[in-house]
Design goal:
153 residues
C-alpha cells in the first residue's frame, strides 16, 4: 500500500494576496463606460446595420430602458475590472503593462471565443463582431491599465 502525503498549505507569508483598490475599479469602470459611449457613437450606423435596426428604433421608447441599459453596462464594467485586477495581482507584479496583458488574455480566452461562437451560429456579420469584440478588447485593456497601475496603499 502506497503512502499518500497530504498537500501542505502554503504559509500565509507566501500566498498571493489580492487587495482590491475599489476606487481604481470604479475609475476603470467609468473610463470603460465613457469609452463605450464614444465607440458606439462612432460606429453607430454600422452597429445598427449589423443588428438589423434603425435610428428610429433606437430613439423609440418602446422596449428601451436607458436606466437598465446604462446601469447594466456600468456594473458589468466594474465586475470585469475587478476580475482583471484579481488576475493581475495573482499572476505577478501589479503594473499597467501586466494589467493590459491580463485583460487581453481574458478577452481572447472568454470574450472573443464566446462571441465568435454566438456570431457563427446566429449568422451575424463579422463586421458586427469586429465592432463589439473590438470595443471589449480596447475597453478591457484600458481597465487593465488603470487597475494594474493604481496600486492600493
Amino acid at each position: 500500500m502506497e503512502s499518500q502525503t497530504q498537500p501542505q498549505p502554503i504559509p500565509a507569508s507566501q500566498s498571493p494576496r489580492v487587495r482590491q483598490n475599489y476606487l481604481a475599479i470604479v475609475v476603470a469602470a467609468v473610463a470603460c463606460f465613457l469609452f463605450e459611449a464614444g465607440w458606439y457613437s462612432y460606429f453607430l450606423q454600422r452597429w445598427l446595420d449589423g443588428i438589423g435596426r434603425t435610428r428610429a428604433w433606437l430613439m423609440s421608447p418602446a422596449g428601451n430602458n436607458p436606466a437598465l441599459q446604462y446601469g447594466t453596462a456600468l456594473i458589468s464594467a466594474a465586475v470585469i475590472a475587478t476580475a482583471i485586477s484579481c488576475v493581475t495581482q495573482l499572476t505577478g507584479p501589479q503594473t499597467a503593462l501586466r494589467g493590459i496583458k491580463v485583460a487581453a488574455l481574458l478577452w481572447l480566452g472568454f470574450v472573443l471565443t464566446t462571441w465568435s461562437t454566438e456570431y457563427v451560429f446566429e449568422v451575424r456579420p463579422w463586421s458586427l463582431l469586429g465592432i463589439n469584440a473590438g470595443f471589449w478588447l480596447i475597453g478591457m485593456a484600458l481597465m487593465g491599465a488603470i487597475v494594474g497601475a493604481w496600486k492600493k496603499k
